Predict the structure.
Amino acid sequence: MADLRKGIQSIEVGFRVLECLERALTPLSLTEIAQTTGMAASKVHFYLISFARVGLVTQDAYGGRYRLGPAALRLGLSALAQLDILELARREIANLRERTGDTVFLSVWGTRGPTVVSRLDGRKIAPLEVRVGAVMPVLTSATGKSFLARLPRRVTAKFVRRELDSVAVDGAPRNLRDVEHLIADAQAEGVTSALGTVIPGILTFAAPVVDYEGAARCVVTIMGYSGQMDRDPRGAAADALRDCARAASRAAGFTGDIWKPQPGRDGIKSRRR
């Protein structure tokens, strides 16, 4: 929904200049900024002068190119210090519950593995087995598989080994090669799913919420009876979940593609089906 409240248009226009510099990998010339923002160079120059005066922009001594300044850095660090990703995610799961009518819960990675920290019941009846404090299996729950696909191997390895030795559920990974395939598929698809492996007859989809570095901070899961929810990983329920996770991640400062593995995350590569 568009925000129709009255604001200061010049600030909104000027923000396009700051956003252009924020997205750039290197300092930009006046001409490059004007071309990227679609603004006249003379107009961009006026904004750059004002932003430089307050420290939001600096200009290189040689070459005259522009970059974000120390005031922008201070604002960014302050925003990170104030950031509460769980609170951001809770706002988004409330929207997801209203959009779908399904029960939604939020999990973090705890000392015992994926742990439920919030649950919002939907209009549709859902089982009570998944309560706040419940710990979900890594290899057979949608929540666990979502964490597995985003967390470093060193974090999940002992949980994977333990479940490989003890879990005997149809369709569960049997060896480390199966686990690698599971991880690759989860990264390619964006959401993970489970049908009846944790609670008989219950379908779940899960997706990660990542921070500004692309690290998984929590996982959102939507739950319902298999006969009531769309089982298609590209269907209405899964797409609503993707929108929820994407919105929470954007609010946490992530600007990349949430569905692609991030460079440096233990060298994981996506395998598309």
